[in-house]
Amino acid sequence: MQQVRVCELFAGVGGFRLGLEKTGHYKVVWSNQWEPSTKTQHASKVYEARFGKTGHSNTNIEEVPTSAIPDFDLLVGGFPCQDYSVATSLKNSKGLLGKKGVLWWSIHRILSEKKNKPKYLFLENVDRLLKSPSNQRGRDFAVMLRSLSDLGYAVEWRVINAAEYGMPQRRRRVFFLAYHESTALFKKIENSDPKTWIVKEGTLSEAFPVSISPQNSTTFELDVDLVSVSEHFNTEKEKALSPFLNSGVCVGGKVTTIKTMPSFDGNRTLLGDILENGTASPELYIDAADLPKWQYLKGAKKEIRKTNAGFEYHYSEGSMVFPDALDQPSRTIITGEGGKSPSRFKHVVQTSKGLRRLSPVELERLNMFPDNHTLLEGIPDAKRAFFMGNALVVGIVEQIGSVLFQKISQIEEPL
Question: Cα–Cα–Cα angle for 89, 91, 97, nearest 5°?
């Protein structure tokens, strides 16, 4: 069977591409990476250095006409978590539009306008997507599911914490796969018992096995009108919880969602396993003069603080493990991980030479990137850390991609 043709949007430094290409079954035919808030397109430069310029676009995706994107089978991307409310209803053939600058609608537009619609979608986001916004819990995800149903896709999703499947970082993200109604996989999910698909037969459950808590499952229908979903979803009760649990499927606007638990007894990679031994740069070590500031920031606090306007308030927070435990998977990497300044959230490890911050290579290893993937002239270490704070865990993409290809092959869908 030939390789699956991939379009990678919001590509960053290529985490999706690395994971999919490691399986040997996927070929990226077009990619896009654009950082709106910066003049120098650092991530795009790294992407081009690693994968070449052919088929790569460094233009705002909102300005790329769908006609400029070649046909592909699978759309992948970790798109920004934004406000997905529907802004206007148009009376012409375009149907519904979201707010400008909300990049979910760029995906929607490409799916709508492509004559040969992609058969599969494989997307990633922060897990708060399932419960945002705070005044209408779950609305954003409901808008996405309804719009994908309208476009002819069935969806399965799961919140996966990489560390719970033996990977070196505690990083929780929601992954979802969608299958177009023209595929045999769509018909398979349509004719399956939703709970069986979520727990046993689905792509995500085969890649990352789960067990279930039988009491926790919900089924409901999404309103057929997308504007109505946007305006009225989960508004009945004030401060209602999101109805979306950590696993689920949506077929034809009908949602089944279950709370699942990871089922894994394989090898585990810990923070201590990924450290550079003896090769870390001396500038990563914490100066003794800065140690009290680190200890203060990492420590528990109960104090009175003042706002700029002079208003006094009580502030408290618990302590962080300091230094970070080497016999556990690491905490989640954040975008502010780089730089020398003391911080509550940066990782600090104890080594034989003293306390130090993590190196760019170690941050890459925590996301299962190849060593020095982001090393490029003109890219400072702080920017390399920023990339990893935005990236996904490559091993998750590889496992899901491997099972997805297996499923496509088994039911022999010609690409």
Answer: 35
